[in-house]
C-alpha cells in the first residue's frame, strides 16, 4: 500500500508525545491505537491507521504493523521505533523523536523567517519585469520599432503571456519538488552522499546522522542486544546512504573479531574525537558510559547543527535571489547605456 501523502510534522510530533506517555503509563497498545484512530480527521490517515490497528489486533508488534504504512511515516520514525522496541525503551525513543521533529519544525520556521524579505523582493522584481515587458510593447507601438531592454525577445501582451507561463512553470516545478521531497517521493539517497562532500553543509549533515547512530548504538547495546545486530541497526538509524553503505564492511570486521574502535576507525569515516571516546570506553570496560556521553554530546551538537543548517540553506537561497536580481539590473543598465551611446551625436 502506497499512501498518497505523509503525516504532517505537527501531527507526528503530537503522536510521538502521546504514544510515549501512554506506553510508559502501561496502557495496552491496542487501546492506544484505537484512540489514535479516533483522533485522525483525514480520510487517508484514517485508512492507514485502521490497517495498522488491524495488524496490532492480530498480534503484530507496533513496528511491524507500521511497516505496512508505506510512506505515510518518515523512515527515521520507523527505524527509531524498531530500536525502541528492540531495547525495551520505546517511550524514550518516542520522546527523542518528538524532540528531533520539533527541532526540525523550528528550523523550518527560522528558514522561512530568514527568507521572508528576500522572497518579497523577488516577487516585486518578477512583477516589475512583467510590467516592463508589457509597457515596452506599448512603447514599441508608439515608436514604430521593437524596444526590448531585457533582450529576451519578450515584448507586449504576447511577451507578457509567455513570461507569466514561464514563471508559473518554474514556481510549480519548485513547489512540486519541495512537496515531493517532504512526502518522500524523490530519491534522496544519491544526494545524501553528494551533500557530505560539500564543505560546511556536509559536516552539518554528518553530525545529524552521527547523533542518530550514536543514540541508537547506545540504547541497543545498553538493552543487551548482540553487538553485530546493534551496530547494524544503529547504522540504519543514521538515516543516511553513506552510513548505510558501511554496513557490510562493518559487519565483516566485527565478525573477524575486531573491536568497535578498530572497525569504525578503518572506515576513515568517523571523527577522531568520536573514535577516541569509543576507544576509551572499550579500554576501560565502560562502553555504556562512553556511548551515553557521546549520545548526549552529539544530540546537543545535532540541535546546533540543525539551526546552522537553516542559516546555510537560507543563505544559499538569498544568494540565488540576489544573483537573479543583479543579473536583471545589469541587463537593464546595459540596454539603457547602449541607448544613450546610440543617441550621442557623432
Task: Please provide a written account of the structure.
The chain is an all-alpha fold and 346 residues long. The chain folds into two domains: 9-98, Receptor-associated Protein (Up-down Bundle), CATH 1.20.81; 116-346, Type II secretion system (T2SS), domain F (Receptor-associated Protein). 78% of the residues lie in helices and 0% in strands. The protein is built from 15 helices and no strands. Helix 1 runs antiparallel to helix 6 (90-143). It is elongated and about 90 Å long. The relative contact order is 0.09. The mean pLDDT is 81.
Strand residue percentage: under 5%
Assigned CATH architecture of the largest domain:
Up-down Bundle
Strands, total number? 0
Number of domain modules: 2
User: What is the count of helical runs?
Assistant: 15
Give unreliable regions as ranges. Answer: none
From the N-terminal CA to the C-terminal CA, the straight-line distance is 76 Å
Considering DSSP H and I runs of 4 or more, what fraction of the residues is helical?
A: over 70%
Average predicted confidence as pLDDT: 81
Q: Structural class given helices, strands, pairing?
A: mainly alpha
Outline type: elongated
- The CATH topology of the largest domain turns out to be Receptor-associated Protein
Determine the CATH superfamily of the largest domain.
Answer: Type II secretion system (T2SS), domain F
CATH class of the largest domain, named: Mainly Alpha
Radius of gyration: 27 Å
How do the SSEs run, as a string of H and E? Answer: HHHHHHHHHHHHHHH
What can be said about the biggest beta sheet?
Answer: none
